[in-house]
Automatic annotation (TrEMBL), chain A:
Presence of keyword ATP-binding: yes
UniProt keyword annotations, A-Z: ATP-binding, Nucleotide-binding, Repeat, Transport
PANTHER family: CARBOHYDRATE TRANSPORT ATP-BINDING PROTEIN MG119-RELATED, GALACTOFURANOSE TRANSPORTER ATP-BINDING PROTEIN YTFR
Low complexity composition bias: residue spans: 502-514
CDD domains for this protein: ABC_Carb_Monos_I, ABC_Carb_Monos_II
Keyword ATP-binding: yes
Any Pfam family: ABC_tran
Superkingdom of source: Bacteria
Lineage: Bacteria, Bacillati, Actinomycetota, Actinomycetes, Pseudonocardiales
Segments crossing the lipid bilayer: none
Name by which UniProt lists this protein: Sugar ABC transporter ATPase
TrEMBL record, chain B:
Protein name: ABC transporter permease
Compartment(s) where it occurs, according to its Swiss-Prot or TrEMBL record: Cell membrane
Residues that span the membrane, as ranges: 20-39, 59-76, 83-101, 107-132, 139-160, 202-228, 259-278, 333-353, 359-377, 384-404
Keywords on record: Cell membrane, Membrane, Transmembrane, Transmembrane helix
Organism: Lentzea pudingi
Annotated membrane topology: Multi-pass membrane protein
Length: 526, 417
């Protein structure tokens, strides 16, 4: 890797952005951004969510024109009107949210828009198979994308970019959806391709990863570049402080507040796939006590989502009981369970947490439409809702011009703060938090962590599902590992490392004393 | 280096069943349907169920449904829900009659396509450019189609035919029959032997009295398949219906493809209107002539799971139900109820094998109900008979719509940026 940093200085840099400014009505997304990416390097761009990374990349990829500033590629000034122009200049982008059509095959997704190169038939297929090796993709091009896992979808995205002959590849938060082992595989792929002369622009706010993969780092804050650093000499903490511009948060919880009072007791919970062929949840037993944070670790798609949705009553359990504070809630509907004292931070705030087109105060009512302060008898209490929304906005530092703006106008972090604030109001006894800080900037992350810690100290029971293993280890009092619908291992957050957890999550067996298997997983059972 | 389907490490464990090719399923389906009809006609003593006359009528009546469904396929594959097919079809009927009585059948076809396309263009402008809800725009076009043609018929046709609801007669297409083959099949059909006579009857219906429009419509089906699934243009069009953001990010002109798809959709619906006007039984424009066939076409397409092959099956089913009631009346439709009982019996066995107790019980319940209906009535009341196709549509969609998969971005208004 170090060899690749010694790129000849006489050559033109791969990409130079000079003085880029982009304004949207009411906000300046980028102001006077400068960025130089040398050929053959992995250049990381770090910044909080809402700092303007995405806008900058959209400008570089031709999706939006800059208001001011210039783009140079290989020493030539260019103007991109559409992504096709950027593609022609050899720039490709792997989006954070995959840009794939699930119901089309890998091949169709790859050749789409580039049919002129090798057609859409056999020649294209041969070329795809030839390129797949570079990305580590190991599937037939005729397979539908919906059948692929997250890591393979990402490989298809990289393949798309390669197929078009891109030499500069933008990776937009590529690790957000991957488990540690997959991240390592991705990094191997990136390094391999780097040796073949590809240049990467790596956007991330995971600083350990940036330091592991990047040859140079540029930090962006509030829409402007605040400096560059050498990832070999800078620490994650220093980098993060550059990003935030202030002191740093940590998920670490200090003293235990676990009590003996059982809040949530799940016994023998089972759930089958809709066609009844295979269990999604298989005999799940779990207890969450007052003042305790129970973390669930697992590769996505192993039943975590379904576990949460079954506890919330959004899915009907096949068998088993769910008891909340000595009250059997197994037969209750979702609203009744919420009224019984469950707060719920859903994993996808856009699908389940918010109505994006509705104002903030209206979103405050959701899930509380039968309770004070947002309802009075059968009527909604809009004044009460507005007043309480003001409280949340103030207490949870939701940055918004007002409570009448639609939720869509807020950045991801601020939307999430609103959701967490709403779910912690009305004195819940149990909080279910699914990926509470996913896609959220460092500032909002710190605030959400603090609020969860504070509520835990006050006796709240918390069930935490997260793909961010540092978060899971830092916040949890107990960690359980979920694999193929079962809780297969317990881990001690005081001693376990993310790597241990990662191998337990993939079923590779525990490599550490900190992870204790609770049941044997039969291989090849299904 | 590249492995086959077996090695997919990230796919959740669930063994892939061996795929039966689509054409084999289709052939099995056709064979099953013929066997079912043949047994029914033997048991109930109604040879009309599989007679060449019924088949011929079914083809004529299925044609508009097929074309409307094909129109729906084009629009929805590009992500635009086209409930306005009915309105575009009405515009097509008026256009066909207006050009048809003056310049002959080919002019009728061209005018119908043009009028239908205009409806499609309107739908595209509303939904794609202005982001109007697809259903709202579609319903508006249906109302507009009905109102506009009423106005135009009063204006143009009334002085000629003395009837504001009807056009002067249209000159028909010449029809063609496969002479020797049809005669030979006719002999077989008259033989009244199980299966053989039934198959012969259906085949004879298919090769007798075929108009160029029928041939054109039948050709449009594989042509649409080829264009949509085997060409670059089709790939782009479908990608727009699955994930327009992804398509846009790859330089596909989303708006352009949606426009083309919806205009073609309107043209096909209009052609369906021409098929109604040029139907030998009618040969003129009549107000209310479409009778909801645009909607039924849409239903046929949904039944066919947004695929051309399935769409053909749906159109055949609805055309058959329509043809049977028109040709033979209440008694034979009742015989069809008997056929449904037989079909449900097969479904019960199938569901029992799959251990789907609830579905099996539901099927038994419906089967018993249908059987009681069959033995307690002599014929279906005529008030209901003419609604047979609509009822079949309803029943089929209620049963079949559970495992269907529409294009992912169907009905979603796309905005760039």
């Amino acid at each position: 890797m170090s060899s690749s940093t010694s790129v000849g200085t006489d050559e033109h840099p791969a990409v130079v952005l000079t003085g880029i400014t982009k304004r949207f009505p009411g906000v300046v997304a980028n102001s006077d951004v400068h960025l130089t990416v040398r050929r053959g390097e992995v250049h990381a761009l770090c910044g909080e969510n809402g700092a303007g990374k995405s806008t900058l990349m959209k400008i570089l990829y031709g999706m939006q024109p800059p208001d001011e500033g210039t783009i140079e590629v290989n020493g030539e000034q260019v103007r991109f009107r559409t992504p096709s122009d950027a593609i022609k200049a050899g720039i490709g982008m792997v989006h954070q949210h995959f840009m794939l059509a699930d119901n089309l095959t890998v091949q169709e997704n790859v050749v789409l828009g580039a049919e002129a190169m090798h057609g859409i038939g056999k020649k294209a297929r041969a070329r795809i198979i030839e390129l797949s090796g570079k990305t580590g993709l190991n599937v037939d091009p005729g397979v539908l994308v919906e059948q692929l896992g997250v890591a393979d979808r990402q490989r298809v995205e990289i393949l798309k970019v390669l197929y078009r002959g891109a030499k500069v590849i933008i990776l937009d938060e590529p690790t957000a959806v991957l488990v540690p082992q997959e991240v390592n595989e991705l990094f191997d792929t990136v390094r391999g391709m780097q040796e073949q002369g590809y240049t990467f622009l790596f956007i991330s706010h995971k600083l350990d990863e940036v330091r592991a993969i990047a040859d140079s780092v540029t930090v962006i804050r509030r829409g402007t570049t605040v400096g560059s650093a050498d990832p070999k000499t800078v620490s994650s903490r220093q980098l993060a402080e550059m990003m935030v511009g202030s002191e740093l948060p940590s998920p670490e919880t200090r003293e235990s507040t676990v009590t003996d009072t059982v809040v949530l007791d799940v016994k023998g919970l089972k759930l089958m796939t809709p066609d009844g062929s295979r269990p999604i949840l298989d005999d799940v037993d779990m207890v969450v006590r007052s003042g305790e944070v129970v973390g669930i670790a697992g590769v996505e798609g192993n039943g975590q989502t379904e576990l949460v949705e079954t506890i919330m009553g959004m899915r009907k359990a096949g068998s088993g009981t769910i008891t909340l504070q000595d009250r059997d809630v197994t037969k209750l509907g979702t609203l009744a369970r919420r009224e019984a004292g469950i707060g719920y931070v859903p994993e996808d705030r856009h699908r389940h947490g918010l109505l994006l087109t509705q104002p903030l105060w209206y979103n405050r009512i959701l899930g509380y439409q039968t309770r004070k302060p947002t309802a009075r008898g059968v009527w909604l209490d809009t004044d009460g809702a507005k007043k309480d929304t003001e409280r949340i906005v103030a207490d949870f530092d939701v940055r918004t011009p007002g409570i009448d703006v639609p939720a869509a106008a807020l950045s991801g972090g601020n939307q999430q703060k609103l959701v967490v604030g709403r779910e912690l109001s009305g004195d819940p006894v149990l909080l279910i938090a699914s990926h509470p800080t996913r896609g959220v900037d460092v500032g909002a992350q710190a605030l959400i962590w603090d609020e969860i810690k504070r509520a835990r100290a006050a006796g709240l029971a918390v069930l935490l599902i997260s793909a961010d293993l540092d978060e899971l280890i830092g916040l949890s009092d107990t960690i359980k590992v979920m694999l193929r619908g079962r809780l297969v291992a317990d881990a001690d957050p005081n001693t376990v490392t993310p790597e241990d957890l990662g191998s337990a999550m993939t079923g590779a067996g525990s490599t550490s004393a900190a992870v204790q298997e609770t049941s044997v997983v039969e291989e090849g059972e299904h | 280096m590249i492995s086959t389907m077996e090695e997919k490490p990230h796919i959740p464990a669930a063994p892939r069943k061996r795929r039966v090719p689509g054409w084999a399923v289709a052939m099995l389906g056709v064979a099953g349907a013929i066997a079912l009809l043949s047994i029914t006609s033997m048991q109930t003593g109604f040879p009309q169920l599989t007679s060449s006359g019924t088949t011929q009528t079914a083809v004529r009546l299925g044609l508009p449904i097929l074309l409307a469904g094909l129109g729906g396929l084009w629009a929805e594959r590009a992500g635009v829900v086209n409930i306005g097919l009915e309105g575009m079809m009405i515009m097509g009927t008026w256009g066909a009659a207006w050009a048809g009585y003056q310049w002959g059948p080919w002019a009728a076809v061209v005018a119908a396509v043009v009028f239908g396309s205009l409806g499609g263009l309107l739908h595209a402008i509303a939904t794609v450019t202005f982001g109007v809800n697809h259903i709202v725009s579609g319903v508006a076009i249906n109302l507009l189609g009905a109102g506009l043609t009423k106005y135009l018929s009063t204006l143009v046709f009334f002085p000629l035919s003395n009837n504001p609801r009807q056009s002067p007669p249209v000159q028909p297409f010449d029809t063609y029959s496969a002479g020797g083959l049809a005669d030979w099949l006719g002999e077989l059909e008259a033989g009244q032997r199980l299966f053989i006579s039934d198959v012969a009857g259906i085949l004879r219906g298919l090769v007798t009295g075929v108009s160029p429009l029928t041939m054109l419509a039948i050709l449009l089906l594989p042509l649409s398949y080829y264009l949509l699934w085997r060409t670059r243009f089709g790939l782009r069009l479908r990608s727009v219906g699955e994930n327009p953001h992804a398509a846009d990010s790859l330089g596909v002109k989303v708006y352009f493809h949606k426009y083309v798809a919806v205009i073609v959709s309107g043209g096909l619906a209009g052609l369906g209107g021409a098929a109604l006007v040029l139907n030998p039984g009618q040969l003129s424009y009549l107000e209310g002539q479409t009778g909801g066939r645009g909607y039924i076409g849409l239903a046929a397409m949904i039944f066919g799971n947004w695929r051309p092959g399935g769409l053909l099956g749906g159109a055949a089913l609805f055309g058959y139900a329509d043809g049977l009631q028109l040709r033979s009346g209440g008694e034979t439709v009742l015989a069809l109820v008997y056929g449904v009982v037989l079909l449900l019996g097969v479904i019960v066995v199938w569901q029992l094998i799959r251990r789907k107790w609830f579905s099996a019980a539901a099927a038994i319940f419906v089967a018993v109900l249908m059987y009681l209906l069959y033995i307690s009535l002599d014929e279906i009341p005529s008030e209901f008979v003419s609604y047979a196709p609509h009822m079949v549509t309803l029943a089929v969609l209620a049963v079949a719509s559970q495992r269907l998969r529409m294009p992912a971005a169907d009905g979603v208004v796309y905005r760039r940026g």
